[in-house]
Design goal:
The protein has 328 residues and is mainly α. Helix content is 76%, strand content 1%. A hairpin with a 2-residue loop joins strand 1 and strand 2.
Length: 328
């Protein structure tokens, strides 16, 4: 068998794996919707569907950013704490500093760029593994949030700020419109730009990508910055929706994002996965959480179930993909 035939076989196996993932996740989503439709008469009410849409919007926006990082073989566990810091900082800029909402939002997103740059610096230059870097950053950001807020809620925002998280354009909630634009941007970035191709290349084989002349450090830095900025946008939506800056928000959010992404077929080893699948992963997590709330499932049991879902998703990824990264 020549090299070309072997490449064709590998390509066919990869396509079969991706198709199996897509069918499996679509089937799981349908089963969940059918189950909760029968289990709770309130599930298909318009008000509840809008609630799911807003929850999914925040999760989906952040999931797009972390997908950029995970396809390159990294991870960003700081996104949950970044939601907390964004909530506190933007609230204080509007309330304590008296800045207009637009300026406060701009400065808050600039802070998110700085956080992403720091993550990239420690991963690229100091050579600390992404898991440890972002885990440490997660703790640091959470601590800063409590220091800045003194553990208290902050409210009294300018009129109109609530439109971002609570408003509608026609019948569609504003957060959902933002989510659609973010998904379109994410799809174009991964599939139509050189940075997207490089991200997959780094995830498949970072050293080979570097030797081919690609600036790996620059690419990874951009990916971490985008992850932080999109998490910041999700945090702004959450702040607008709650109308209160709270240092406690975002706790456990990073694991929900990782669960949604892995459910969507993005390999934890990097180099594999499509944003189209992540959409289903986000919907599954959103529907699952909402359905458990409607059924009055205890918060503690919800955490157990989400943890089991994450383990099952990773196990499925290993089984179907054949532990791609280790084989290389």
């Amino acid at each position: 068998m020549n090299k070309l035939d072997n490449q064709n076989i590998q390509k066919e196996k990869k396509n079969m794996t991706n198709n199996l993932r897509n069918y499996a996740i679509a089937f799981v989503f349908i089963i969940l919707v059918v189950f909760f439709s029968f289990a709770s008469p309130n599930f298909f009410q318009v008000e509840n569907l809008f609630t799911i849409a807003r929850q999914v919007a925040m999760l989906g926006i952040s999931a797009v950013g972390m997908t950029f990082v995970m396809v390159s073989g990294g991870i960003d566990l700081s996104v949950g704490s970044l939601l907390s810091l964004v909530s506190v900082v933007c609230a204080k800029l509007m309330v304590n500093a008296g800045l207009p909402a637009v300026i406060a939002i701009g400065l808050t997103l600039l802070m998110c760029i700085c956080v992403g740059t720091l993550n990239a610096f420690f991963v690229n230059r100091v050579k600390i593994p992404a898991l440890i870097t972002t885990l440490g950053m997660m703790t640091i950001l959470r601590g800063i949030s409590y220091v800045l807020s003194d553990g208290r809620h902050i409210w009294g925002f300018p009129e109109g700020f609530s439109f971002i998280g609570q408003g509608y354009i026609g019948p569609i909630p504003v957060p959902v419109i933002i989510l659609v634009f973010v998904f379109l941007f994410g799809w174009a970035f991964l599939n139509k730009t050189r940075f997207g191709r490089w991200a997959y290349g780094i995830g498949n084989n970072e050293e080979a990508t570097r030797l081919s002349g690609i600036d790996v450090h620059k690419t990874k830095s951009l990916l971490y910055i985008l992850s932080s900025v999109l998490a910041g946008i999700a945090g702004l939506i959450l702040l607008s929706r709650m109308n209160s800056g709270q240092p406690s928000v975002g706790s456990g959010f990073e694991m929900e994002v990782v669960t949604a992404i892995v459910l969507g077929g993005v390999s934890i080893y990097g180099g594999e996965g499509k944003l189209q699948g992540v959409i289903f992963g986000v919907l599954i997590v959103g529907v699952l959480e909402n359905g458990m709330i409607l059924l009055n499932v205890s918060t503690y049991y919800q955490e157990i179930i989400l943890g089991l879902v994450l383990l099952a998703a990773v196990g499925f990824d290993n089984k179907i993909a054949g532990r791609l990264k280790l084989k290389k």
